[in-house]
Amino acid sequence: ADYKPVTDARLANPEPENWLLTKGNYAGWSYTPLEQITPQNVSKLRPVWSAATNVGSGHEAPAIVNGDYMFVSTPRNQVLAFDSKTGRVLWRYQREMPEGFGALHMTNRGVALWGDKVYIASIDCMISALDAKTGKLVWEAEVCNWQTDSAYITSAPLVVKGKVIVGPSGGEFGVRGFLKAFDAQTGKLAWTRYSVPAPGEPGSETWPQQGQWKDSWKNGGGTMWMPGNYDAKNDVIYWGVGNGAPWLGDQRPGDNLFLTSVLSLNPDNGNIISHFQYHWNDSWDWAGMNAPTLVEFDRNGKKVPGLISAQRNGNLYWLDRDAKGKITYQKSTPYVKNTVFTSIDPKTGRPTYDEAAKPATNKTATYCPSLWGGKDWPYEAYNPKTGLLYIPFNDNHCMTLTGMIQPRIPGQWSAGVDINKLDLKVADNFPFIGGIQAWSVDGGKEVWRQTYKHSWNWGSILTTASGVLFAGGTNDRKFRAYDAKSGKLLWEFPTPSGIISPPSSFSIDGKQYIAVVSGWGVDAQWIQGKMHDQAGWEKAVPEGGSVWVFALGD
Ligand SMILES: O=C(O)c1cc(C(=O)O)c2c(n1)C(=O)C(=O)c1cc(C(=O)O)[nH]c1-2
Ligand SMILES: [Ca+2]
């Protein structure tokens, strides 16, 4: 079939029938304007086709759809192309894993599209451009060196104006985070931007300049391991920055810009325009890796550009952004229990801490939420019709950590805590752990919630113009539909494994489809094991990847 090239204009204004970007649009909404599937008829949803991916581990990539072509990336550096309507396999690309390779998170969060190419960042630090029609390799380039940098890539790339932008992971291996941008046509490196400034660069004054920790910036963390968002109108990208390395903040005294922050950047050269740091001197692995969602706030009857973001630290943030990309704190509120922040400066958003709840070297501290946060990487969703932000959250869990000095050995855990002693504690008689919260963006209030007594929630959310939410994320393998206005459960379907991939939607010949990839693994699986020990939950969730496509039956 013909392949319609993906242009800058199409990415900035994606047609409703396709799903060209990880989160559906550059604003990060995870929203489809399609309206055929409604709260009234969603109970008639039936599988149309499914396909095994032939690999295990956690499948965290959405189905990306451009007309008749659907692209799904999987763990182990694989990209599958399907006929969107029938599920026929068009091609399969697999980049061989290097011998001896290991990473902390064996997953991939999806491909990016531009022109006639498909871009995949592989776990062994490479970025590859494939021919969309054939799957043939067109170019490849090195983003990092997995052996010498101890880095790996799980992120989906983001393409902005002909540049493919991606950052590696490795916050627990002492990687100093960065983004790289490559020419989408040729693979030539366009720019590199570190999240932690070198001495003399703006922000370096927030890192130790002398003494025992003067070199801490070199391995300070701040990996940018989730795709950013883009304000196409004003030409500004927004990217989240991860946790500090090692985790203990006393080993890098100072605020440590730009860890656990959102950065606004110029996509042409990666220059930092502005930032907001969610919390200073991170000591909890509360990474700020999820870019905030681009919305507009209603202010005195006027629409003003804003950012909203449910952060891992358990706070929900409202930030202003202007046409130049300047970010200004507006307000925040806890959406899960946080035992660390004793107050937040209403002007600056800067928190003060209960020192007893801040882990440090040779000190044991207990804090809530645990390192997995009020929410981890799964995407929130925004629906402009309901005006609600939907947050996949986890509450009633805490962590006890003891800090230590851990030498940095390439490729090895060096977060400054014993990896076997990540002491997750759930609340006694917890009423639930996971769930979905719906928040009014303008009203600033929670409107409804769904809670899961027997599961964490690892499910990114899709919302539709017709008022439906789709989400997996639970250990019972179910894919669910909810009423976006009320939160009422409308439909559910058990897939072969648990779902931790973002659902997406597309339409062909006037028929709307919902796609999702089933395939439990990574931290969702790790926590399930801990919940077995703590609360007697089933130890394992069946694994193995499969793609599912649904539509309304008769
Ligand atoms: O600091 C990092 O570089 C980094 C990377 C990743 C990743 O690439 O998946 C995760 C984390 N940190 C992390 O802290 C975390 O909780 C996490 C969960 C998952 C997952 O896929 O379930 N990845 C990651
Ligand atoms: Ca991390």
Automatic annotation (TrEMBL):
Cofactor requirement: pyrroloquinoline quinone
InterPro entries: PQQ_b-propeller_rpt, PQQ_MeOH/EtOH_DH, PQQ_rpt_dom, Quinoprotein_ADH-like_sf
Domain Pyrrolo-quinoline quinone repeat: start-end pairs: 19-322, 454-514
EC number: 1.1.2.-
GO molecular function list: oxidoreductase activity
Keywords per UniProt: Metal-binding, Oxidoreductase, PQQ, Signal
Domain of life, per lineage: Bacteria
PANTHER family per record: QUINOPROTEIN ALCOHOL DEHYDROGENASE (CYTOCHROME C), QUINOPROTEIN ETHANOL DEHYDROGENASE
Record family assignment: Belongs to the bacterial PQQ dehydrogenase family.
Protein name: PQQ-dependent dehydrogenase, methanol/ethanol family
Organism of derivation: Steroidobacter flavus
